[in-house]
Write a structure and sequence with these properties.
This protein has 143 residues and is α+β, with helices and mostly antiparallel strands. The protein is 27% helix and 31% strand. The chain contains four helices and five strands, in the order βααββββαα. The protein has a five-stranded antiparallel beta sheet. A hairpin with a 5-residue loop joins strand 4 and strand 5. The longest helix is centred in the N-terminal third of the chain and has 16 residues. The termini are close together.
Amino acid sequence: MRPTIYSHRVRARYQETDQMGVVYHANYLNWFEVGRTEFIRHAGLTYRELEEKGILLPVMDARITYKKPARYDDEVDIRTWVGLISPVRLTFCYEILRVADQELLVSGETMHAFTNSDLKPIRLSRSEPDVYDWLATMHKGEE
C-alpha cells in the first residue's frame, strides 16, 4: 500500500537562486509549503478554509536532505504525500525532482500538530472527522 502522491510543478525563479544560479537551500522549505498547500487544495479545501474552521497546522519539525542542486529556470516537480497521521499529528513527505531528467534533487518531511487558533492541540478526528478521514485515506493510498 503506497500513499497517494500529489505532484505540483514550479519553475526556479531568479530570486530563489544565489550568485551561482543555484537554488538557495532554504527555498526548498518554501517549495515544501507549496506542495502541502496544493496537496490540501487537491481535496477541495484550502489552508484558509481550514483556518476559518479554527484548525492550524504549525510545523513542529522539518527534515531535508539535499542530493543535487536545482538551478535557475529548472522546472521541478514537488511530490507530496501523507507519511504519517494520527488524531493529533501529521507528517508530510516530499521529493523534489527536476522535470527534464527526473533527477531527485531533495527529499524531506515536515511534522505538524493539529491545533486550534490558540495553538492548543486538538484531535482532528473529533473536531473535523471528514478532513481527518480524507487525510487518512490519502495516507493509505485509497483515493
